[in-house]
Amino acid sequence: MSTAAANELIETPEEEEIEHGRRVLSNSVVVVAIRCTLQYVVLPFLLPLIGLSGAVSVWLSMALELFALGMMVFNVRRLWRTAWRWKYIGLSTLTASFLLIMLYVDVTTLLGR
């Protein structure tokens, strides 16, 4: 297949689609940045400084982990009809595995095991 024929088969997205994709990506990045800051900076370092550690931080951590897993499912559904589907599913599988391990550790911590 020649380059000209291949270019005819490729559909270029409309400007509205491009702008929608930018908005979706930028909103998702902001949500992930806030969640990660809370989970990896505020919970382990700032909460103990103000005397809120232990079970409070574990419950907050679990809530953030469940929120992250829910956001992954939401994003997979949103990206299902795009070329990014398989790349995002691969990344989400790796990230979800890490989050599930952390969730398991939090649950065992709460149960005292």
Could you say which structural class the secondary elements and strand pairing correspond to? mainly alpha
Assembly level: single chain
* Overall pLDDT metric: 81
Low-confidence stretches at least 5 residues in length (pLDDT < 50)?
none
Structural domain count: 1
Sheet-strand content, in percent, reads: under 5%
H/E element sequence: HHHH
Number of strands: 0
Describe this protein's structure.
The chain is 83% helix and 0% strand. With 113 residues, it is mainly alpha-helical. It has one domain. Helix 2 packs antiparallel against helix 3 and helix 3 packs antiparallel against helix 4 (85-111). It is elongated and about 65 Å long.
Give the secondary structure arrangement, pairings included.
Layout: H1 3-9, H2 15-49, H3 55-79, H4 85-111
What labels describe this entry?
elongated, mainly alpha, about 110 residues
Short summary:
The chain is mostly helical. The protein has four helices and no strands. Helix 2 runs antiparallel to helix 3 and helix 3 (55-79) packs antiparallel against helix 4.
